[in-house]
Every structure is written in structure tokens, then in C-alpha cells.
């Protein structure tokens, strides 16, 4: 804790660092908002700029871009129903309906405050708890990833209150989609129909943009083309009232913790974090009916989680030099380019640099809040457009976004077909969130289990000899018990027949 | 009212234009998005053999030298990997050096997918005029050898290699194996029990593992991970007995937490003076290296191939290249098209034999 006192904050007040923070955050928000571009591409684009900066400036710039991107994704998610990044997809579920109800500013406000809180909490964790968390994180390996994945899938049961069969089928469809591509353990291609474009699986951005944005375009076609979503100029202000904040403060806290933890675990990612946070918020909510229709908790949870991933992901990176994702790998690359190998040695030899990064990121998060308020309220004005203008714009930007992410026309077809299929599935009351969660968790579950069994030579006993596994299995048992108890209690209550509420 | 609506439309159009520009723009070492079915703008007719390029004349000097810039149009390097990793950064470094010393603009185009197949397709769709180059590493050799690609090795022309990275076998610092011999002894007494991790299957790490097993005469289980990050986590967490990987990936997280048991190639490395090579321990692995290099369209005219080869030789002679190699724990490994082609074909034949007929 002594770094708080030892670090000279004036070291941060150079033009270079200020530029790094302000430009980084703005660039991050814009790149995140453009569908199809995400943190990884954003970081790769600014990497050349960092070659000529000092080491502190480079890392602060990259970290700021990372933080800004995770917020930026929610902008297009809320305003147009297009996920700007994979992680922002969960935000669409409640953010977009709220915007359509004429309150885009409030929706963006929930998201921005969430980004601020998630970012700050995770950076604080980075500052204070790095070393103990990092050594704890090393205890988590394949057996534990498998169990975590299972917990994630179980949470789906908490997502839906009505038709459990359709939820299960949705989960199965999601798992099936995740199996497309080369199997890592045998090198065999699965479900690729002989085309090289499917060898790496169904592209995540194409799939999500298709399922949510393209299907939404079809839904928009069913409405009166002269509808405008927002009439009142007041609603562009990106802010939430104090009362609104206190109503969701626990959601923010839980989401931040979930995001930070997931960020620490390598290979899981911000998409999983935001969906798990959303799932958790919905499962444990007292009144779930508003989820999917503009419930503030449905925006608060995913948005705070995906920004919390930034701080969490930096923990294994700076303490052990382990990059947990492609985005952190770029940041590691920047470290190496400046001749710094992150880890215990870098803390001992260059504490000023390492602590400077933490403080710099903290300031960047706070500045992101202010910059976000003013820039995104301008972007929100797009919703004044009547539907006959908005619909083609949404379709156009979605497809450009999908193309931009991989420069591959094949993925456009994936997006369009996914969109058509999702439109029908949504109207038939299947659960798209369950499908997405299963799609994200599928590879984690499958690969971790198979790798575990390779390592243990087929013995299941490995789950019982590792302390972390035992803890997780106990958690699963408790979880199942709680869900079963809730269902039994619900079955005993007189059932309110509501023919109009839909499934998720 | 009318003015307001007009302002909205204008700002909207600007946003869309910005979106398009960011997605499709790119200059210098940014990412570019030229779709593969659009011919490269302002390029001379494809069958340009025998005609010198603009601004480029070989004036019959005895020592072949290039006049720079090589072409007035930018050179596009197709990188079959996502932006940001080692394979991507190396190309951006080259682009920087080219711009600084030779006034030659190089654009990096990321086309990941299909273990390189998407990148090769993009290369072959462009004209064979030397303005499109394809980057890859020894992993490509393995992909060809295992039959994972819908292409044969003659579908691309080797141009030059620029850097190499050695393979190493390593264990966590608290492992009971202090030397390679300890590991071999344990493996011989317990065949198949050792868990050795690596990145993906049918990659250069996997190929190195198989060769190592054959040369050391032991049996162990290969555990593939999908990235060096998750592999590092497994090694440091102690769930694996050992791992194989390149020096660059290990040194990025090595803080005394891993112990290298052996390196490939012939001499010890300056950075790791205490680590023996497999060769000196009596287990010759040959030249096994994760080399990184460039390929061309097979129909590229020989004079252009030669000019590009000289270009790369000039690039790697610059001090910035040396600095880059230092920082990333790689070594200079310069080959011209002929020697490259030779060992490239040999390696593929070796891999083909190792993986059987897939």
C-alpha cells in the first residue's frame, strides 16, 4: 500500500501523459462504438504511435484505449441495437428498449456510470490486490475453467422463468454453434462444410451483429416508418439521477466484481463477463418482468462488468507477464517493445513505471466519464431520425461493421442468415441470451474438460484433488440446491396467468 | 426547424463517412481493407514481365543495388494473423524501417483465418507484380505438411526469411527435473505419463514436440492450448510437467519462474548462457527454428524477386532491426530466395513424414 504515498503524482502531469489519456479514451470510445471494431483492433491501430513515446506514455495510452473501447461498445448497442463490441451485446437487451422508449440519455447514463464504477473498482483491485490475486489465479487451470463454465450454463436456468424446454433448446443451439471450426485437441475440422472461412468457427462479431442488429432491422420493418424514437430533447442528456443510481448500486458492485474476476482468468474475456453479469443480475432480481424491456439493471450489470475486465486483465499481465486475451497480448507487445518484461522484476526495478500505469489508468477512467457525457450525447441524436431513415442506416452500419472486422464477405452471409434465423427464433419465444451464453461458454467448457482428461489420463479424480475444484464443485451443488428450492417455492404459489409476457 | 434537421443529416453523413474511412482507410502501417476481388488501383498491367517498374532501372552495375523507392505504389504485406501479436508487430517494424530509410510505403493487411488459407487466397488473387507479399513463419510449413490447407507448397514462392526464434523445452522452476537428462530418465521409466504443453496442434510447436520425442526416444502426452497466455497460466500453475515453445514467448513471462532444459540450433544463446543446446547434449535437432519470412505469388518475374530480396537484405541491415531482434529475443536469420526454397522444401517433406498422410 505504500505506493500510494511513494508515487509522485506530478509525474503524470506531462503533456505526453495527458495526450495519452485524452486521446486514448476518445479513440477508444469511437472505435468501440463502431460495430465490428473492438479493443483488439483499436489497440493494434494505436500501437505504432506508441513506438515513439516513453514507456509510461505508451502503456497509459493503450490502457486508456482499452477502457474507452469497452464503454464505446455500448453506444451503438443502446442507440441502434448493434453491438459495437462482442461484450456490448448484453447491453442491447435492455439498453435498446430504453432508448426506443425515448430515454437514450438515461440508458447511456447507466452505461457510463457503470463503466466508471467497473473501471475504478478493477483498477483499485489492480493497485491493491495484484500480487495476492495473481498467485490465487494460478491455482485456476483447466479443471476449474470447466467447472466455471458449468456454473455459467446453470445460470441460464435462472435466466428464464417460463418455458424451460425452449431455454434448453436455445442452449443446445448455442453449444452447437460453438463447435464449428477446427477442434484444438485433434486438429480436425468440424461442421466447416469444406470452406476455409469456417475453419476458425462462426465469427463472433458476425454472429452477434446478425442475431441482434439484423434481426432488429426486420422487426423495425414491421413498424410504422414514420415513428421516431425520441421526441424530447431533454432525453439526450447522458446522466442518471441520484435516485436512479442508488436503485442499482448493488448491481454495479456485483457486476464490477464479476468483471474483475473474469478479467483475471485468461482466455475467458469481456463477452463472457458481460453476459454472466447480466445473467446474475436477472437471476437474482426480485422482479424480473422488466428485464428485456428496459430494466436499468440490465444495462448496469453488463456495462460495469465489461469495463471491470480491463483492470482485471491487467493483473496477470503486469504481475506475471501472462496475456489473457488478444487485446492484452497487444499491450504485452508494447511492454516488450520498450524493453520491459512485466513481472516481479519490473516492480522491483521500475516501480515508478508500474504505479504510474495504475494511476494513469485510474485518471483515464474518470476522464472517460466526463468525455463520455459530452460526446455520446451528441451521438444519441441519431434517434431523432424517423424509422424510414434509421432502418437502412442500422442495416448499413451493421454490415459494414461485420465486413470491417475481418475483411471477409463470407461473414456477411453468416450475419444475414443469423439475423433471419434469430428474427424467427425471437418471435417463437426462444431465448437468444441463452444461445449467446452457451456459444461463448461452449468452447471453454469443452476444451477445458477434454484437456483436463488428457492431463489426468482419463481420471475424473483430478477434480477431487485440487482445492479450487473442490470449492467450485461445492458451489455448483449449492447453486443447484438454490435453483431447485426457488422452483419448488414458485410452483406452490398461485400462478399469475399473464398471456402477454414473453420469454426473455 | 429545417436547418436543425439539415444539421442532423449532415452530422449523420459525417459519422457514416468516418465509419467507412476508419473501416476501409489505412495508410502507412495501418490496416488496409482492399477487398480481394478489386484490382489494386493504379497498378500496371499484370503481365509485366520484362518491363522495368517506374523509377527503377538496373544500370548494369556489377554489385546489384536497388534504387529506392522500389515502386511508386505501396507494397502490401498480407499477414494471416490478427493484429497485435508477434507476427503482426514484426511487419509493422519492417514497414517503419522501409518508410524511414527507403521511402517505400508498406501497408499491412491483416487477413486471419483458416491457418493461413485466407491469406494465401488473397495473395493469389492479386497480380504477380511484386507489390503484394505474404508473411508467414515456420508454422506455414507445418500446415502444408499436415495437409491442413487446400494449397500445395508450390502455390507460393519463398522470398526471404528475416528472423528466427528458437524452440525450447522448459519446466516450471519448482519442477523436480533439473536437467534434460532428469526428464528423459523419468519419461523412460514412465512412458506416456509426462504432460507437455504447447500452442495448438499441427503447428510448429507441435511439430517440435514430435521431433523431440523421436530424437530423445521417449513418449509423452502433448496437451494443446489455444494461446501462449493460457499455456503460461498452466505452466506457472503447475498442472503441466513441461512445455514447448519459442524463446520469444517464454522470455516474455520468464522471471525466474521457468527453467529451460534445452534449445534448438547449434550454439548457445547470449541471452541464456547457461542453457545447453540439444545438439551439445547429443540430441541433434538440426536447424529447427521458428523462422519468419515472406513469400510471393509464384508467377512473379525473377528480376522483381531479386529486387525484393535485396530490399529485405537492406532492411535487416539497419540498426532498428537489430534493436527489434534484441527486444523480442529473436535472431537474425537472413536467407535469399534460393536457400530459403531449399530448406523450405526439406522441412515440408520432414513434416509430411512426421505427421503421416493426413
What's the short story on this structure?
The complex is a heterodimer of chains A (504) and B (358). Chain A has 504 residues and is mainly α.
What does this protein structure show overall?
The complex is a heterodimer of chains A (504) and B (358). In chain A, a hairpin with a 6-residue loop joins strand 1 (181-182) and strand 2. Chain A has 2 domains: 2-457, no CATH class; 466-504. Helices cover 71% and strands 1% of the residues of chain A. The longest helix of chain A has 34 residues, at 104-137. Chain A is built from 21 helices and 2 strands. Chain A has helices at 3-6, 15-33, 39-50, 55-80, 89-100, 104-137, 142-159, 164-178, 204-221, 242-247, 249-264, 270-283, 296-320, 326-337, 344-349, 351-379, 387-406, 409-427, 432-455, 462-465, 467-492, and strands at 181-182, 189-190. With 504 residues, chain A is mostly helical. With 358 residues, chain B is an alpha/beta fold. Chain B folds into 2 domains: 69-164 and 290-357, D-Maltodextrin-Binding Protein, domain 2; 165-263, D-Maltodextrin-Binding Protein, domain 2 (3-Layer(aba) Sandwich). Chain B has 11 helices and 10 strands. Chain B has helices at residues 2-24, 86-102, 117-125, 138-145, 180-189, 204-216, 228-237, 247-251, 302-316, 319-327, 337-355, and strands at 75-79, 106-110, 132-137, 157-172, 195-199, 221-225, 242-246, 258-263, 289-296, 331-335. Mean pLDDT of chain B is 78; it is low at 23-63. At the A-B interface, helix 3, helix 14, helix 17 and helix 19 of A face helix 1, helix 2, helix 3, strand 6 and helix 7 of B.
Amino acid at each position: 500500500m505504500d505506493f500510494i504515498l511513494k508515487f509522485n503524482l506530478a509525474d503524470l502531469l506531462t503533456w505526453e501523459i495527458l495526450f495519452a489519456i485524452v486521446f486514448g479514451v476518445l479513440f477508444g470510445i469511437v472505435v468501440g462504438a463502431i460495430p465490428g471494431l473492438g479493443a483488439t483492433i483499436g489497440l493494434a491501430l494505436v500501437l505504432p504511435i506508441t513506438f515513439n513515446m516513453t514507456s509510461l506514455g505508451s502503456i497509459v495510452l493503450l490502457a486508456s484505449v482499452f477502457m474507452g473501447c469497452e464503454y464505446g461498445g455500448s453506444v451503438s448497442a443502446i442507440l441502434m441495437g448493434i453491438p459495437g463490441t462482442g461484450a456490448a451485446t448484453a447491453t442491447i437487451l435492455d439498453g435498446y428498449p430504453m432508448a426506443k422508449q425515448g430515454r437514450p440519455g438515461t440508458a447511456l447514463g447507466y452505461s457510463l456510470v457503470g463503466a466508471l464504477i467497473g473501471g475504478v473498482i478493477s483498477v483499485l483491485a489492480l493497485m491493491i490486490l495484484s500480487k495476492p490475486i495473481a498467485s490465487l489465479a494460478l491455482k485456476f487451470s483447466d479443471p476449474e475453467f470447466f467447472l466455471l463454465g458449468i456454473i455459467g450454463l446453470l445460470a441460464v436456468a435462472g435466466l428464464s422463468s417460463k418455458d424451460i424446454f425452449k431455454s434448453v433448446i436455445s442452449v443446445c443451439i448455442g453449444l452447437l454453434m460453438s463447435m464449428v471450426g477446427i477442434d484444438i485437441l485433434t486438429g480436425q475440422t468440424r461442421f466447416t462444410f469444406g470452406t476455409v472461412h469456417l475453419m476458425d468457427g462462426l465469427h463472433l462479431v458476425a454472429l452477434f451483429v446478425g442475431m441482434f442488429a439484423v434481426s432488429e432491422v426486420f422487426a423495425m420493418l414491421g413498424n410504422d416508418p414514420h415513428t421516431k424514437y425520441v421526441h424530447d430533447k431533454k432525453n439526450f442528456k447522458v446522466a442518471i439521477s441520484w435516485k436512479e443510481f442508488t436503485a442499482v448500486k448493488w448491481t454495479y458492485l456485483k457486476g464490477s466484481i464479476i468483471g474483475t474476476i473474469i478479467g483475471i482468468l485468461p482466455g475467458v474475456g469481456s463477452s463472457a463477463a458481460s453476459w454472466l453479469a447480466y445473467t446474475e443480475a436477472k437471476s437474482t432480481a426480485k422482479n424480473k418482468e422488466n428485464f428485456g424491456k428496459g430494466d436499468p439493471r440490465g444495462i448496469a450489470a453488463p456495462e460495469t462488468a465489461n469495463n471491470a475486465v480491463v483492470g482485471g486483465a491487467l493483473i496477470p499481465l503486469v504481475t506475471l507477464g501472462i496475456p489473457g486475451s488478444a487485446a492484452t497480448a497487444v499491450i504485452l507487445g508494447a511492454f516488450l517493445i520498450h524493453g520491459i518484461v512485466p513481472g516481479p522484476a519490473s516492480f522491483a526495478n521500475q516501480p515508478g513505471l508500474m504505479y504510474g500505469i495504475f494511476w494513469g489508468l485510474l485518471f483515464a477512467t474518470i476522464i472517460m466519464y466526463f468525455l463520455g457525457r459530452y460526446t455520446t450525447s451528441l451521438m444519441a441524436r441519431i434517434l431523432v431520425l424517423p424509422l424510414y431513415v434509421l432502418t437502412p442506416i442500422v442495416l448499413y452500419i451493421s454490415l459494414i461493421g461485420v465486413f470491417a472486422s475481418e475483411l471477409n464477405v463470407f461473414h456477411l452471409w453468416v450475419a444475414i442468415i443469423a439475423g433471419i434465423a434469430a428474427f424467427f427464433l425471437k418471435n417463437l419465444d426462444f431465448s437468444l441470451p441463452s444461445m449467446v451464453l452457451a456459444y461463448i461458454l461452449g468452447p471453454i467448457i469443452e476444451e477445458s474438460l477434454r484437456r483436463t482428461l488428457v492431463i489426468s489420463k482419463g481420471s475424473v479424480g483430478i477434480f477431487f484433488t485440487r482445492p479450487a475444484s473442490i470449492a467450485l464443485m461445492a458451489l455448483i451443488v449449492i447453486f443447484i440446491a438454490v435453483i431447485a428450492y426457488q422452483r419448488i417455492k414458485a410452483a406452490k404459489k398461485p400462478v399469475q396467468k399473464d398471456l402477454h409476457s414473453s420469454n426473455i | 426547424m429545417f436547418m436543425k434537421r439539415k444539421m442532423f443529416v449532415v452530422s449523420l453523413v459525417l459519422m457514416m463517412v468516418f465509419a467507412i474511412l476508419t473501416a476501409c482507410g489505412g495508410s502507412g502501417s495501418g490496416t488496409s481493407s482492399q477487398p480481394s476481388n478489386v484490382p489494386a488501383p493504379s497498378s500496371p498491367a499484370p503481365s509485366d514481365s520484362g518491363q522495368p517498374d517506374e523509377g527503377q532501372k538496373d544500370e548494369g552495375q556489377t554489385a546489384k543495388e536497388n534504387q529506392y523507392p522500389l515502386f511508386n505504389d505501396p507494397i502490401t504485406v498480407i499477414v494471416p494473423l490478427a493484429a497485435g501479436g508477434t507476427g503482426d508487430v514484426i511487419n509493422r517494424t519492417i514497414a517503419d524501417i522501409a518508410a524511414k530509410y527507403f521511402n517505400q510505403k508498406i501497408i499491412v493487411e491483416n487477413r486471419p483465418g483458416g491457418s493461413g488459407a485466407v491469406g494465401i487466397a488473397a495473395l493469389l488473387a492479386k497480380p504477380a507484380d511484386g507489390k503484394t507479399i505474404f508473411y508467414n513463419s515456420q508454422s506455414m510449413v507445418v500446415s502444408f505438411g499436415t495437409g491442413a490447407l487446400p494449397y500445395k507448397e508450390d502455390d507460393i514462392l519463398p522470398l526471404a526469411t528475416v528472423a528466427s526464434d528458437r524452440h525450447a523445452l522448459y519446466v516450471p522452476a519448482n519442477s523436480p527435473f533439473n536437467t534434460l537428462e532428469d526428464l528423459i530418465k523419468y519419461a523412460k521409466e514412465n512412458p506416456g505419463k509426462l504432460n507437455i504443453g504447447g500452442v495448438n496442434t499441427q503447428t510448429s510447436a507441435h511439430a517440435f514436440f514430435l521431433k523431440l520425442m523421436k530424437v530423445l526416444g521417449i513418449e509423452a502426452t502433448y496437451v494443446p492450448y489455444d494461446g501462449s497466455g493460457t499455456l503460461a497460466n498452466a505452466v506457472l500453475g503447475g498442472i503441466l510437467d513441461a512445455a514447448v515453445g519459442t524463446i520469444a514467448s517464454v522470455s516474455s513471462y520468464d522471471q525466474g519462474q521457468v527453467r529451460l532444459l534445452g534449445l534448438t540450433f547449434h550454439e548457445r544463446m547470449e541471452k541464456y548462457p547457461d542453457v545447453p543446446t540439444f545438439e551439445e547434449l547429443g540430441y541433434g535437432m538440426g536447424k529447427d527454428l521458428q523462422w519468419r519470412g515472406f513469400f510471393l505469388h509464384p508467377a512473379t518475374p525473377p528480376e522483381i524477386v531479386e529486387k525484393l530480396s535485396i530490399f529485405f537484405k537492406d532492411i535487416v541491415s539497419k540498426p532498428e532491426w537489430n534493436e527489434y531482434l534484441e527486444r523480442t529475443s529473436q535472431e537474425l536469420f537472413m536467407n535469399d530466395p534460393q536457400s530459403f526454397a531449399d530448406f523450405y522444401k526439406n522441412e515440408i517433406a520432414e513434416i509430411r513424414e512426421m505427421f503421416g498422410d493426413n
